[in-house]
Amino acid sequence: MARIGYARVSTRDQHPEAQRERLEAAGCTRIYTDKGASGAKASRPEWDKCLDRLEPGDTLVCTKLDRIGRSVRNLMDVSSLLQERGVDLVCLDQPIDTTSPQGKLFFTILAAFAEFERDLIRERTKDGLAATTARGRNGGRKHRLTPGQVQAARDLRAAGRSVKEIGQLLGNGKPVSRQTVYRALGMLAT
């Protein structure tokens, strides 16, 4: 009957220490931590190890529900898996305790809100990209080479210059990467 903790941060520049400290304070004897792993993915290295470690009578502890999954389907699958194994789930920031009917209901409602929030973010991102495109801009970084430089790269290549030489000639002191030159020559998908 162990309390097993799970912490996750989505990007490599985020820090899971605060989650780990809270899980330790909650009495977790073992804590699995994924760093740079999206919650949208059902399979994550430390998450998979955590699930393999859980035994009947154990309690899985996380700080928030969105640490273990982002979609209702995924969270329901996790809940079913834990229930089949006889493992309880506790979320420190939400009153979730799946041993009671109220806890199961609350878990289902929170999972629905987590998915709703994710859908709203996706919709806002899509709307923002559409507005940017309507103003004549594309998302992402500006092109490294001007149309004139692209033509110059093609002319240099036709004259027998190597991709490395073309990059050095077009770089104005800082060489252009091979990938950029290849893209300008139409040898890479944009």
Task: Give a description of the structure.
- The protein has 190 residues and is an alpha/beta fold.
- Helix content is 49%, strand content 12%.
- It contains seven helices and five strands; from the N terminus they run βαβαβαββαααα.
- The chain has a five-stranded mixed sheet with strand order 2-1-3-4-5, sandwiched between helices.
- The longest helix has 34 residues.
- The chain is elongated.
Descriptive terms for the model:
190 residues; alpha/beta; 5-stranded mixed β-sheet; 7 helices; 49% helix; elongated
Question: What is the string of helix and strand elements?
Answer: EHEHEHEEHHHH
Kindly provide the radius of gyration, computed on alpha-carbon positions and rounded to a whole number of angstroms: 25 Å
Helix content: 40-55%
Strands, count: 5
Number of helices: 7
Strand numbers in spatial order across the main sheet = 2-1-3-4-5
Question: What does this entry show, briefly?
Answer:
The chain has 190 residues and is of the alpha/beta class. It has 7 helices and 5 strands; from the N terminus they run E-H-E-H-E-H-E-E-H-H-H-H. The protein is elongated, with a radius of gyration of 25 Å.
